[in-house]
Amino acid sequence: MTKIKSKKLLSLLSAAIVIIILVAPFAHNLYSQGKDSYKIIRSKMQVLNQILQFINQYYFDTVELDKLMEGAFKGMMKELDPHSIYIPAKKLEDIDEKFKGTFQGIGIEFDILGGYITVISPVADSPSERAGLLPGDQIIAINGKDAYNITKDQVFKDLRGKKGTSVNITVRRIGLDDPFEVTIIRDNIPIYSVRASIMYDDSTGYIWLTRFSATTATEVKKSIEKLKKQGMTRLLFDLRNNSGGYLEQAAEIADLFITQKDTLVFTKGKRKETEQVFIAHPHIGDGNIPLVVLVNRGSASASEIVSGAIQDIDRGLIAGETTFGKGLVQKQLPLKDGSAIRITIARYFTPSGRLIQRPYENGGDDQYYLKLYEKDREKKIDSLKALRPKYLTRSGRVVYGGGGITPDIYIPRGDTLIENETYKLLSNSKRPLFNWASIYLSNNEMKNNTSENINNFIKFRDHWSLSEHEFRGFLLYLKQEDIQYDSTAIYNNKNYIMNHLKAECAGILWGNNETWGIRRRTDNQIIEALKYFEEASGFINNNP
Q: Which domain does 7 fall in, by range?
């Protein structure tokens, strides 16, 4: 055997020994659970050792040991359930950042347009906003170095950094002849869970929640208080495509609406410490606002905890589609090499005792996820209701377990009427709608908010619209920029596109919040859900 092969074998055997050492601390627990468990793990570790030796001796090509072992770890977790996963060290930092709710940098939403970093929007209360950066600004140099054709990864490296450090950027702005320099001091940048919080109309508040991170309950509470001051008398709470997050934050969100001492959610697991009961605090929540919660097949986990509590305690109406159906609780556990596992430690149950976890096959999660996208998913779910366990809400309404939260009001998606060619235009990497809106506003008195109908957002929302002439100007811009589009699709979806152009204008004038305040006005599920607030008002008496 050559020296190279010997070294390789030693590395593989060392890895096997390391795994055995890592497993050793659990041997006592395994033995206490039964001699069979101990025998199985000892036998399988011997087999793993053999596999590694055979790979070393016979596999025809070079083996990347890290990649090989990570594949084994992922396969091991996959055999448990679809939500228990192995997280490599490289991915862990991004995941932790998402749920902790902050990172450090200058705070911009950006894209690379025409080769340059283009500001789509400065993050609210960020160093970039304080420095006066505007949507449409191009960052053409960073610390004196030309930024043309910079990659997104390099942008993150150059603009992110420790709080208190500075970065010098050169900015080119539409309407100004010469670029100018700005020094920005980096700071903590919040990653908001509330994507939009705005008055949809004179009485309806709209909150769109995209995740359940460490700051979520605080954000939602602030949003509710802000909207009340703006005249909110009813709330549309949008949890669509919210895949979840922290269990504790979900309980806190439900607590903001429940005004009677009742169970919000409870968990059951193998170990005593995994069993928890979350009880509502009667004096924390607001039970006087009619509430409609909007969900869809992408609403999972913590979203289902909130909607399940609202439904079971008869606090409001759940509208939209049947939710994902994830009734399992995970805990993230760090590993010695900087990676981690997220392992299912318990099941959670709604106040009525429902387990809403969909059936799954260990090791076969492809079908588990593909079933979400079936065309007739809602019809199939409805046809199986007789087989699903039935539960009663506090007022005696029938609800179902065993497969997500079934909405009180089913509202199918309406964007299926939007043609694929239209979506291609909206998602074009050159961001033509944003660019056109930036140029349009820079050449228009609207930039200074002097137009009668747009001196504030409410007037803009209710009274301003693009003209046919301006729409043709947008199509001319597409031709000038050599952006291909399908004329038939564009005219079939003309109103939809014009609304998106108006939304881009709103975002440039006021910010991301107002972008969504306009964009959601063509959302059929929202438009339909608004019709059920009178019915939702009937639940107010159930919450003293």
A: 3-63
Where the chain has pLDDT below 70, the residues are 1-35, 97-98, 100-102, 363-364, 416, 445-454, 541-544
Catalytic-labelled residue, pool 84, 126, 223, 301: 301
Q: Which of 397, 411, 317 is nearest to 354 (CA)?
A: 397
Same domain assignment for residues 349 and 238: yes
* pLDDT at 16 (0 to 100): 44
Provide the pLDDT for residue 238.
Answer: 98
Active site residue 91: no
Give the domain-ending residue among 410, 431, 454: 410
Q: Strand, coil or helix: what is 31?
A: helix
Catalytic residue among 137, 312, 408, 523: 312
Report whether 242 contacts 303 (CB < 8 A): yes
Same domain, 401 and 471: no
Phi then psi for residue 293, to 5 deg, are -105, 125
pLDDT score for 189: 84
Q: Which of 8, 326, 447, 502 is catalytic?
A: 326
403 and 312: one domain? Answer: yes
312 has catalytic annotation = yes
Task: Assess whether 371 and 479 both reside in one domain.
Answer: no
